[in-house]
Amino acid sequence: MSTIQSRQFHHDAEVLTHDLRHRKLIQKALGGYYVKRDEQKAKFTDWQSARASAAAAKFEAVNHLDKYLIEFTDKLAARGTKVFWAADGAEASAYIAGVARAAKVRKIIKSKTMTGEEIHLAQALEKEGYEVVESDLGEFIVQLREEPPYHIVFPSMHLTRGEISETFEKKLGSQPADTPEELTMIARDVMRKKYCEADMGISGANFAVAETGHISITENEGNARLSTTLPRVLVTIVGIEKVVPKLDDLALLLPMLATSGSGQNMTCYNTLLGGPREQDETDGPVEYHVVLLDNQRTTLLADAEQRDSLHCIRCGACLNVCPIFKNVGGHSYGTTYQGPIGSVITPHLRGLQSWKHLSFASSLCGACSETCPVKIDLHHHLLQNRRNAIAEKFVWWEKTLFAGFAWFMRRPILYRFAAPLLRIGDPILRLIRGQVIDPVRMWTGTRDLPKAPPKSFKEYWRSRHANR
Amino acid sequence: MQTDSREKILRRIREALAVAAPKRHLAGAGQAMSHPPQDWLPPVPNTPAELVALFEKNSDDLKTVVHRCPDRAAAAAALAKISREEGWKSVATHDFDLGRAAVAGLNLPTLRTDLPYTPADLEPCHAGISGCDCLVAQTGGIVVTSASAGGRALSVLPPHHVVIATTSQLVGDLADAFALVRMRYGEVPPFLSFITGPSRTGDIERILVLGAHGPKKLTVLLIAE
Amino acid sequence: MKISLFIPCFVDQYYPNAGIGMVKILEKLGHQVDYPESQTCCGQPAFNSGYWPEARSVAETMLDAFRNAEVVVGVSGSCGAMLKVFYPEMFHGEPREAEAKALASKTHEFSSFLVNVLGVGDLGAEFPAKATFHDGCHGLRELGIKREPRELLRHVRGLELIEMKEAETCCGFGGTFAVKFPEISTAMGEVKCASIAETGADLVISNDSSCLMQIQGLLDRQGKPVRSMHLAEVLSHSLS
C-alpha cells in the first residue's frame, strides 16, 4: 500500500519515534494542558451533557447546511459585506488576490487560519508580490523558519526557546533572548509596526453564525483583533462547515472550545464580525469580504457515515490526547490537519488511496472520540476509511493472507494443529529472531515474543474432559 | 470580478444531504436535550453580590485588575493613581458618561477615537480608557462594541486597557450578554468582542506570557452603581 | 447459570492461564461452564485491516459456536468489544445481522460480568504483590470498563495496587498496528513501560492479554524484572 506520502510518513515516524528529546518536550508541553483541561471540565455542571448539546447544534447545522449558509450570507450581504463562494483553493486564492489588486494593496497581515493554510493562501499571495506577515506568534515563528505549523492550535509546540531565539536572531537581527517573555516582546514590537502599515488583513473564522450573519474568531493574543481592525481591507476565509444555526449556540461552544482547546475557562478574545465599518464607526475595515470555501468538504458531507467529521470546531483536543501524535509529532503527518481529525478527513479532502495510511497508523485506542467536545466518532471513522480503502483497492498479498486466515479459522479441526505447530516453531523463531528471514521481525525487532505454553486452552479443556 | 461557485456548491450540498446521517452518537442525549445548553456550563449565581464576587475571582485568575470604587470620584482617583504610577504621557478614550470626568481629571493629551483618527495617532498612547456593554461573571469577561468602547481598536491597541463600568452592568453568562446586546441595539452590531483578561500567549514552550499583541494590562474600575 | 466461555485465539495459544483462571473462578462461584470447541478467532485482524468480508467469514464461526448459548463470557477487552460493539457494525445490512446483534447483547467481558451481572466483589483471593493496572483501550472505551477490575483487585489479600500515571494511555499493541507501524507501536510501549517503572510495581495486571504481550515483550527486551499477569490469573491464583 505504498505511496509517496505513506513512505514519507513511515520515514518521518521512524525518525521522530526515536527522538527522545522530542518525546520529552511534547510530554512536558502537554502535561500542563491536561491538568488545566480537567480542572475546567470539572467546573461544568455536566460536561457530558454539554458535549451532547454541542454535538446536536453542529448536527443541525451540518445536516441543513444549504439553508444555514444562505441565511448566513444573506445577512452578511445586507450589511455590505461581499461574499464569495469558492469551490476550491485556486478559486479562493484568485479571488483574494483580485481583491488585493483592485484595492491597490501592498502589505498583508494575516491572523491564524488553518483554512488558509490548507489552500496555501500565503504562498499564493507572496507569488503575486505581496508581503504576507503571519501575526499569530506561533505561526510567525514557523513562517520565519519556513516550516509548516506543527499543531493546528499550537504551531510552534515543538520548539524550545533557544531554537526560537536563534531564528529571531537570524531572521530579524534581534539580540539573543532566553525567556519566553523577552521573545514574545520581540515579536510584539515587530508586529505593531506591521499592523499599522498593512493595507489588508486576512483572517479565518472559528464559527459562522447563520442567525445574525457574523463570523466568530477565537484567539488569545489579540493579533486577530488587530489584523481585522486596522487595515482598510479585510478578507475572512471560512470553511462552509463552520456554520452554527443560532447566536446562542456560541454561549455553549465558546467555553467548550476554550476548555478542550487550551484548558481555559474562556479564550482571551472572542470576536464577532459581520460587516465593514458603518456610518457611525471611526475605525474598522472599509471593505469586507467573506470567502466561503468548499475544497472537498461537500465530498465529506456526502459520506453520510462520516458526515459528523464536519462538526469539528478545530479545538485540537484530539491531537493532545493521541499517543500517535505525541510520538510522531505534527510534521510527520505531512498535511495541514494533524492528529486524529486529520487522519479522518485528509483521505476525503486529498484522496483516499494517497492518504489512507494515516487512517491505518492508529491503534484505535479511542481517546480521541472520548475527548471530542462535539462527539465526532473519530476512531470508528478510521476503521471505516480502512474498509473503504480496501474495498476500493485491496493489497494483493494482504488479500491472500486474510483469505488464508479466513479459510484456516473456519476449520476448527485444522486450527487444532496451531498449538503444536507454534511449540515446534518457537525455538526456530528464537534462533532467527530479528533477522531478515524472521517472519515476525516487525515484532521481534524491538520486542520479545512470549513462549508458547505447554498446553493451549483447547488442549487443557480436552484433557479436563478426558479426566472426568 | 469572477463569478463564484455558489450554485455549484449549494447543488453539491443538497445532493449530499439527500442521504441522512446516522444519529448514533446522539443516542442517550435525551436528558441533555431537555434543558437549554447553558444549564450544562459552570453554574452562575443569582444575587448581585455573588455575581461581583465571581467576576472578581475570575478576573484574579486572569490577571485582570479590578478596583472596587464606591463612587465615580473614587474611580477618578484610582485612574489618576494608575496614571502617575505608570507614567502615562498620553491616553486615548471616547466620550462616555462614566469616563468623562475621570479622563479629564488626568490632564493629559487625550486622543478621541470616536472622532476621526488614524492608527498612527493611537499607537503611541499609553492607555486606552473605555466603557463597555456589560461584564460577564461566568468568565470574568468584558463585552465591547464600537458604540460602547470607542470603536474597534481602542480596547486592543494601547498597552493598558482600562474599563470603567458599574456593578449593575454585571450579567451571568454569555447568553445573558447576547440578550443584553440584542435588546440594546436591536440586532447585533457588525463588531462585538468578549475580552477575557489581558492579551496572552502560550506559544513558546507552553509558558504563559502576557501582552502578546493586545494589552499587557487590563484594569476594571468597578463603580458601585 | 450456564456460562459459555469465549476464549480468544491468542489467549488459547499463548495465555491459556487467563482462560483457565476464569474457569476456576466461575466454577468456584457455583456456575456451570461450557466451552463450544468450534470457536477459533473473532476475526479482528481482518476487520482492523479493512478486510471486512473475510472478517465476517471468520466471525460466522463465532455466531455458529454461540448460537445456543445463554450467556457468553470472554476474557479479553478487545475481543469482547469485537463481539459486543463491532459485530453489529460489521454485519449491518448483511444476512446474519440479527444473530450478530443477539450475540452482542449476550456477551460480557469477564470483570464486568463478575461485578455487574453476578454482583461479586470479593473472591476470597490472595496474591501478595506490589502491582499496577493497565486499562486496555477497547475494554475501557468501547465497553466502559474501569471500575470493575479495581473493585475485584481491591479485595485481593496482600495485593498493593498503585495507579500509574498513564494507566489509560494506549500500550501501542492495536492488533495489526503493532506490526504495520512497529516504530510507533514500540515508542508507545516505551512510554507505558516508563509509567509502570515510575510506580515501583513488580507486577502489571490487565484485563487484556494482547496488551500484556506488548508490555511484557518490551520489558523482557529491556531486561526488566517486572512480570505481567492477566486479571483472571491473579484472582484465581490462590484458588485450588
How would you portray this structure in words?
The complex is a heterotrimer of chains A (468), B (225) and C (240). Chain A has 468 residues and is α/β, with parallel strands linked by helices. Chain A is built from 24 helices and 10 strands. In chain A, a hairpin with a 4-residue loop joins strand 5 and strand 6 (214-219). The radius of gyration of chain A is 26 Å and the shape is elongated. Chain B is α/β, with parallel strands linked by helices and 225 residues long. Chain B has one domain (46-223): NagB/RpiA/CoA transferase-like (Rossmann fold, 3-Layer(aba) Sandwich). Chain B has helices at 6-17, 30-33, 48-62, 72-86, 100-104, 119-122, 174-185, and strands at 65-69, 91-93, 110-112, 127-130, 134-136, 141-145, 160-166, 170-171, 191-195, 200-201, 209-210, 217-223. The mean pLDDT of chain B is 95. With 240 residues, chain C is of the alpha/beta class. Chain C has 13 helices and 8 strands. Chain C has helices spanning 9-14, 16-28, 44-48, 52-65, 77-90, 97-106, 110-117, 137-142, 147-154, 177-180, 182-199, 209-222, 231-236; strands spanning 2-6, 32-34, 71-74, 107-109, 126-134, 157-161, 203-206, 227-230. Chain C has a 4-stranded parallel beta sheet with strand order 2-1-3-4, sandwiched between helices. In chain C, strands 6-5-7-8 form a 4-stranded parallel beta sheet, sandwiched between helices. The longest helix of chain C is centred in the last third of the chain and has 18 residues, at 182-199. At the A-C interface, helix 1, helix 15, helix 18, helix 19 and helix 20 of A face helix 1, helix 2, helix 3, helix 4 and helix 8 of C. Strand 9 of chain A pairs antiparallel with strand 9 of chain B.
